[in-house]
Structures are given as C-alpha cells and as structure tokens.
Amino acid sequence: MNYISTRGQAPVLNFADVLLAGLADDGGLYVPETLPTFSQDEIASWAGLPYNELAFNVIKPFVDDCIKASDLKTMIDETYAGFNHIGVAPMVQLGGNEWILELFHGPTLAFKDFALQLLGRLMDHVLSERGERLVIMGATSGDTGSAAIEGCRHSKHLDIFIMHPYNRVSEVQRRQMTTLLNDNVFNIALEGNFDDCQEMVKDSFADQSFLQGLKLGAVNSINWARIMAQIVYYFSSALAVGGPHREVSFSVPTGNFGDIFAGYLAKQMGLPIKQLVVATNRNDILHRVISGNDMSKGTLEHTLSPSMDIMVSSNFERLLFDVYGRDGAAIADLMKRFKTESVSLESGRWEAVRELFDSYAVDDATTCDVIKQVYQETGYLLDPHTAIGLKAARECWKDKTIPMITLATAHPVKFPEPIVKAGLESPALPAHLADLYEREERFTVLPKDLASVQAFVASNVHRD
Ligand SMILES: *Cc1c(COP(=O)(O)O)cnc(C)c1O
C-alpha cells in the first residue's frame, strides 16, 4: 500500500517508511492512497474474535508486505497480551443503548496505549531489519508521553525524548513518564506550555542537522501507524452491539482529531456508522468549525480535561484532504492561510464535514456535574475526558434505537481533580501502579529555548 501527503508535494512512501517518518517533506500528513474496504459479510464473520485476531485482520492490509505476516501477528499478539483486561477493549452498558467503550486497560491507563504499544514494536522491528537507529522526539500534554515511553523503552534501536510543560501536567501523569528509568528514555520539562513544546518538536523536525546524521521519528498522532491501530476498536465495539447488521454511533473525546479520524476511516472501510460525535472541552476549535464553519485559533485554555487542551488539531488536515477531493494544493493553501488568519471552509466542503460529524463543547463545571450525576445514577465513575464524550453523546444522539458508544479514553484515577471537585472519592491506583508515588523520578528542566533543547538531545543520543 502506498501513502501520500495531504499537501501533494512529498514522495510517495510505503508503510515501513511512513512508520519512521514524521511530517511529510511538504509539511503535510501521510494518508493511504486508497483505503482497504471490507464487505458486511466479512466484518460479520469477525464476530467473537479475540481482540488481537480482529486487530490483525484490520491492520494487515495497511502494512501490506512491508512486514512478514507472521511477524506482524506476533507483534500484535504481544501488544494486546500486555493489557490488563482479558477483553482488551471491554464495553460497559450505562443504559438502554448507551455504551462506554473502555480503552484504558493498557499499561498507562489511557487509550493511547492501543497504538503506542504497537508502534514501538513496529518501529523496532523495521529499524532492526535495516540496521538503523532513530531518535524519537515528542511533545505531550500528558497521556501521549507516558504511553509513548512505555511503548518505546524496551526498544534497542530508539532513543526517546519526551517534552512536557513544566508543572502543567498532573502528578500521576508526570510520574508515569518520569519513573521509567531506561537508558534510552529522556524526559524534558519545558518552561512553557504544551504549544511551546509542540513548536520545539516541529522546529526540530524541520531542521534535523543538530542530530549530526541521525534521524527523528514521530510518536504523536501525525504518525499514520497510530491512527491505523485505533481503527480496530471501532470494529470490535460495533460487533459487540450487533454490527455490522445494525448501525452504531460513536462519541469521541477529541483533541488532535486522531481518535475520531480513525472512526471516520472505519466508516469509509465499510463499518455502518450512523453518527460520529466530536466532543471537545472549552478548547473548541473543532466544535466551532463543525457547527459554524469558524476555523480560528482561540487562546489555549487549561481545563480539567488536559489531554484535550489543544488549539490546533493536526489530524483535521487529514479529513480536509478528503473533503477537498484530495486536492493537495488546496490543502497547502488553506493550511498556510490558517497559520496566520482565521479561515472558513469553501461552501460545499463545510457541508460535507457537517454531514459526517456532529459536535459539542463542554465546560469544566458541566464536566464535574456529569461525573457526579452518572456516578449517582449508575455507580460508574467517569474520567473527565470520557464525561465530556458522554455529555456530547447525550446532546447529539438523534436516534435512540441506534447504540451510542462513548469512548472512555482514560482511567478516572489519572485525573482525580474533577472527581474530587464533584464531591466524590478519587479512586485507588490499580495494582501495577500502586507504588507510583514512591518510585524514583528522572527529568530535566530546560528553558523555552530551541538551542538548549537540541543540545540536550544531541548530547544524550546513543550512536552505537
Ligand atoms: C489524547 C487524548 C484524547 C484526545 O485524543 P485525540 O486523538 O488527540 O483526539 C482524549 N482523551 C484522552 C484521555 C487522551 O489522552
């Protein structure tokens, strides 16, 4: 399978190259040239498969012959065997057709493990075959960092540098990153906010000369392989409630538009999805675009759902590429204008987005109310991101005979603040993290200065 850039000017790559690449050379994001599609009968035949077997069926066509099928199978099996729930992505019924898809049973208790546990293995495999090394640089507002480090820390061919905004991630989140003390793991606490971190990573990718010959790889959701791995649980959850012979809807707590984009792809691949609801917090650019064709950067606000505190949702470009008829030049022009001004989508294009997605934005006070109300009604404790998803689901749900599945993107223990604010007791850490507060931490505080960050990276990489 070939992969092409959303801006139309970068080389066409195969899966292995896309896996190791960051942004495309032209500033775009890679997407498959054509999507695999599955018939209703084929999807139906997967009912009851264990998660890892379903994952292999969905992922195989994207990887193509870049990786031997038996090796791919082993990596997928190992990835999901490391989850702490036999069902990997179990469903919980809150009421009638209202479902929660629990995506937090991986090692770091957030959905990002689904992709990053696999990504680390895939990268290591390809690098080992090529006899190459790669340097991972990533920015995190919380969950990506720990999941990426967990996914890469056993890799022999990678060094990983993760930057988080100093003093702006929760203590659980920080400790989940900084207590992983492998030799190839480096945590940087940047004196700035998440967007500053992201900017540093972007600038480093744009000019990699500071690495003197080594190359950078990406673990954020611009990496195609992450999106790919996330498509799987749309199929598994739909099958669990009677799909594909029955339509299903999804509500997805959204930041960078990676997770929900995977849902959109599942739909294009043949899964009968009725509604896709984009749930945001007060950083609501996606809600403003979808509901009112207003694509303007607001100011970044810190909320009780920090993993969705994002001003520019990078993966939205992948959707726009489709909506603009895969016209790379038009996307390049739109994104260039968006850098400096507010834009709106061409008429016709915006309506197409509107057809595909519903959206809703939820503030902090409502997030706490929903956590409290759902706990009182059902005894089920939501994390704040999931609470936003559920609220949006309830607001946007058009046909109650169609199951509505809200993606639970994090375990509530990761974000105790809103739970305590809601007057509830914060849950205990699960067994494998019970001693998190006693573990040794390691991180380096650096100023908001590109040269300092790059010097730190260059002096710590392993060159064999
Ligand atoms: C990353 C994250 C999100 C947002 O996912 P995107 O793919 O960036 O849209 C939502 N909730 C949690 C808990 C996350 O970690």
From TrEMBL:
Q: Matching PANTHER family, A to Z?
A: THREONINE SYNTHASE FAMILY MEMBER, THREONINE SYNTHASE-LIKE 2
Q: Which reaction does it catalyse?
A: O-phospho-L-homoserine + H2O = L-threonine + phosphate
Positions of post-translational N6-(pyridoxal phosphate)lysine modification: K112
Required cofactor names: pyridoxal 5'-phosphate
Q: Give start and end of each Tryptophan synthase beta chain-like PALP domain.
A: 89-328
E.C. code = 4.2.3.1
The record's family statement is: Belongs to the threonine synthase family.
- Kindly tell me the pathway this chain contributes to: Amino-acid biosynthesis; L-threonine biosynthesis; L-threonine from L-aspartate: step 5/5
Q: What is this protein called?
A: Threonine synthase
List the Gene3D superfamilies: 3.40.50.1100, Threonine synthase, N-terminal domain (3.90.1380.10)
The coding gene here is: thrC
Locate the transmembrane regions by residue number.
none
Q: Which GO terms describe its biological process?
A: threonine biosynthetic process
Q: Identify the domain of life.
A: Bacteria
A Pfam family that this protein carries is Thr_synth_N
- Provide the alphabetized UniProt keywords: Amino-acid biosynthesis, Lyase, Pyridoxal phosphate, Threonine biosynthesis
Molecular functions per Gene Ontology = pyridoxal phosphate binding; threonine synthase activity
Residue span(s) of domain Threonine synthase N-terminal: 2-80
